[in-house]
Amino acid sequence: MADSTAAVPEPHTHGTREAVLFGGVYGAVLASSMVAALTQYGHTSAASRRYDALWLLVTACASALAHGYAHYIAERAPHRRWDGLRALADEWPLVTAVLPTVFLLAGAGWGWWPPKGVEYPAFILNIVILFGLGLVTARWSARSWPAAVLIGILDALLGVIVVVANALIK
Question: Model-level pTM?
Answer without folding.
Answer: 0.83
